[in-house]
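Lecture notes, structural biology module. Today: joint structure prediction for complexes of two components.
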Amino acid sequence: MRRLLPFLLLSALAALPAHADEGMWPLNAAPKDRLRERYGFTPDDAWLTHVRSSAARLTVGCSGSFVSPTGLILTNHHCAHRCIQQLSTAERDYIARGFYAAAPADEQRCPDFEIEQLTDIRDVTPRLSAATAKATDERQHHAAEKAEVARIEKECVGKDAETVRCEVVPLYHGGAFHLYRYRLYSDVRLVFAPEYSVAFFGGNPDDFSFPRYSLDFTFLRAYHHGRPAQLLPEQYFKWSPSGPSAGELTFVAGQPGSTARELTVSELEYLRDITLPNRLILIAELRGLVTEFQHRSAEARRVSGDLMFGLDGAYKGTVARYETLTDPRFFATKVAEENALRQKVAHDPALAAKYGGAWDAIERAQLARRRLRKLFSYAESDNSQSRLLRFGRMIMRAADERTRPDGERLAEYRDAKLSSLEQEVVSAIPIDDDLEVLFITNALTRMRADLGLDHPFVRKVLGRESPEELATRLVKGSKLKDAAVRRTLWQGGRNAVRASEDPILRFVRLADEDARAVRKQYEDEVEAVVQRNSELLAKARFAVLGTSTYPDATFTLRLSYGPVAGWEENGRQIPPFTYVGGLYERATGRDPYALPESWLKARERLDPKLPFNFAGAHDIINGNSGSPVINRNAEIVGVLFDGNMQMIGGDYGFDGTTSRSVAVHSGLILEALAKVYSATRLVDELRPPAR
Amino acid sequence: MRRLLPFLLLSALAALPAHADEGMWPLNAAPKDRLRERYGFTPDDAWLTHVRSSAARLTVGCSGSFVSPTGLILTNHHCAHRCIQQLSTAERDYIARGFYAAAPADEQRCPDFEIEQLTDIRDVTPRLSAATAKATDERQHHAAEKAEVARIEKECVGKDAETVRCEVVPLYHGGAFHLYRYRLYSDVRLVFAPEYSVAFFGGNPDDFSFPRYSLDFTFLRAYHHGRPAQLLPEQYFKWSPSGPSAGELTFVAGQPGSTARELTVSELEYLRDITLPNRLILIAELRGLVTEFQHRSAEARRVSGDLMFGLDGAYKGTVARYETLTDPRFFATKVAEENALRQKVAHDPALAAKYGGAWDAIERAQLARRRLRKLFSYAESDNSQSRLLRFGRMIMRAADERTRPDGERLAEYRDAKLSSLEQEVVSAIPIDDDLEVLFITNALTRMRADLGLDHPFVRKVLGRESPEELATRLVKGSKLKDAAVRRTLWQGGRNAVRASEDPILRFVRLADEDARAVRKQYEDEVEAVVQRNSELLAKARFAVLGTSTYPDATFTLRLSYGPVAGWEENGRQIPPFTYVGGLYERATGRDPYALPESWLKARERLDPKLPFNFAGAHDIINGNSGSPVINRNAEIVGVLFDGNMQMIGGDYGFDGTTSRSVAVHSGLILEALAKVYSATRLVDELRPPAR
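The predicted structure, tokenised, for the full assembly:
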């Protein structure tokens, strides 16, 4: 790492940010110059308006796009999963068997599904600056800002609340504020979904990897007043039946959720040395426990199936982040970028006075974080996976907090949050005794090992029992497994909770004083310091770089670009396309490599050389699922549904040499609709008329 | 880390090494000046000779000391554990019940136990330089060196092979060679051992921690020609009944095994970012699996008990090393030390030409290591814990390798190693089917996740089976569980092995070509490069620093020093002593906090304020177990048996602010012998005559 630093420092100073094809660009700040210089392509305003209007945001947390004049929407199967599940019944399992509305009337409305189409972006920074100009302290500033944002959004919506949504988006961590105006569709219907087994072919083992063979797409349709939305030609993308070629410039117009590319080096070190490895160790041990737990019985396997799936996914995502931060080349880039910005700030006395101390303040907060983390972790941030401990604590704390004025409560117990907490606590979620004992025993054993038997907190909560004895006593003796008991305690408030002899409640109360004390320390010495100084750094960055760079992701529309391309991994070249033939070779008939009947039957009708999935050098992140991949003509060449492991590390910074998006090929979708599913109506809607 | 660097760089340049009380000093290079300056104590030659002659080395891998004129030896219970176990029978379980030879004739000889007493150290560097002066290449150099070492050792032993042992010790990684001459005692007898439950009180949870309450001592006796050894007053330590006081300067005269304090920063980064976290993750998952496996049945608990104990210990040791390397202050010190040495080398053209490139070469080798590590880990360095895979592979490889000339074989299959390999393979070690399936399934699942389903090696060894299917088929179908079958195959050699249809043998053969290929790459691109350049760096270090610093540990006698002292941990002050009263408070009656009958009965006879264990700021490492802790008068004040977590990180460098040794108090030993065990004969032998 140290050897690379001087070289990278120079290049970082020369051009900040340094990477080709990096960036999630707002549509009103598209990198026209970079595109022209690198690809000889300059998007004009009509092109950008077309892209902006044809992209869609799914409020469920995904991206999508309009692909026909009658409101057809392309997104991922996993983005529509909840809708498909909600529409399913025991007799009609659309998850297992797929869904196709052969006639328009068969399209079924998704409960709680909303889709937004971006119609305008406006800079409202001056209005907010004016509104907050007279504030004399932080509290006044925030109040004034909040009020002005509400005014702007209200004016923007006007009288069209049913079809218009407006949102003031803070960009560059508050360096600028832009008003995003959307056309809202709240009647969204399911049109087509393939079977889960082919949509999520490869399951967890293939997730975040490539080569890949997942048919992860779904079609929805936007309705207005009970009829399909009518769109102008610049409000939807046309379909490319041939898809992209290797090396071709393509664009992703999606809604990346959030990135943390502006963390300081000391924060990244903390993540690299403490947070991520400790999370991996924790997940690994839990995974070992649950894997073997599943051998106890069929029931044990049933109650822990979802959990295992979640642990596997969390493990993969964390490994990816960890590998990014322990890549010496990557880390050296972050160090170089920070040093470059520090130098620019240091050389400008005005900037230095305002922002120069922020990095060191954040570094000192990381030392406090190290000091507090073990007690904080065991006393306050329950990571046991035990539902009983979680519920017990929520009941106990809510009862106490509700006796305080709203403004003085712990943040998660303010009035605005209480009803969703109550919903969780009183829900009829099943609780398995054996799994509870396992998790609590594990958490207590870890606590004893990490803090030591002689730590006052350990002595207090463990007493003279062994972890397993204590866990067994708590679980066997608690009535909190019963949702009705939880409801009674929640409603009974402080007196009911204090009067209860439930061992779980007594246990969480025993820990509460220390837990609150260490939380207070953590908030004061770590969180407040980091927040205050991160805001300063965002301002410093904006002062130096302005809009020559892109803001961190905010789940708003962004344009990324790059070629269709594989990458080199450990000396092996990964090609950018997979093909139908490879799908059939990979299918072993065993989950998660088992194909549905429809695909087994269609094998002879499909060309094995037809591209299936493809990889692209796009800068994307969670939230980009369902994004359209388009070519220079703004035609759909694929639907993005995943990225490789290196993409996940994009949380911290983009590495264009290895980070890749993964998409379903547009030609494959047409072929599958035609030859596997006989979805003629959809094929006709998508296929451009013969010339 | 970066903030601290400039300051530390300066201090490192000023005085290298920088830490007070750091160092494991050879007895002929004691740090007299440092001791005088810091403690006003200057050991004279008589003192040093006394210490050298009274310290003992246990060839089992421990330290000890002579403590009476008739050859009584003080060491740890855990150092004599094997002897105590070997002398036990079903009727007389000395591990559980302890051992005391009430009369001289009751002392029992330990099988295979040897004790060495250092009688002389001589510098033989000039002889070796002369012997290797004419060598023109590396091979000649090594051959000449090896021959001269053998000559020196043979001359040194002379005709007294029965009672003299000589060893040429390379110090400073070959910067100097010293001849160590020992008086050898090969008749060693057990005199006294407490019960295991009090000797290892606190078990794994308390291991590497403090406060501590372990009675980890044992007495042995050296015999010569069937009679107790007769020692001069300068050949044994006298006993201090009062022990040390807080803050008192004390010395540890022991045999630290090995340290790696001269690793480069790039090697430490590799350890920090790759080796240690991955080991922790692996152990954590195995620990989870085995913890839950133990719930399957009493038999499952029995067959996996040792394994669980080993995993817990390995986990703790690895955590300690990891915490050391992720401590920003510690790492900054290593960076500063390396930079200081690099600068000194860079400023001397002769040194720069010879050694200047070594750091970068080692750093490049770390990049190769990163590239190769995953395949190397799964194909070549079996970390599955499966005994069947291990045996299968040894049988298959030994059969192939034995057909080659000795010099061309893989190192572990040379003739000199074959018989111990054979012993392991044909031993009647029990193999549990369920545990084997569990371990192989886990290893295959990890491999598939880490390398990806599309890696050619994964495709080859996994085929179309799921990890669990393959593991079950291998284990259920293999006959290698039978030691007789293993013996037949081993003796049958290549033809027998090739003819075998055993699924385990077929599986390991399938992987063998790739395994050998990646091993070859690893040896060439990583190991050879690191070894060659580490030797250069050792020479550079010796050229710059000479003997002003101490050499890495070599399991030879070293003197460490420092005060009896606690430390501050996370804002909590850990006091240096524990007391008898605390032992009884800690005893819950549950393993590992259950006291033996003898201690429960003696409670009323013991002063609760009597010190039990104490901590000292000594620079120690594995191998120091059993070391005498002595005061300025060279009196025994304790016997060292452990260190805290920070001590383990001493592998990489000493941090005098937190690293601590842990010892049993000399006064407690006398009291226990007198009041718990009524071991009058021993008390009389140890207690100094009343004045």
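Point to remember: Chain A touches chain B through 57 residues (CB under 8 Å).
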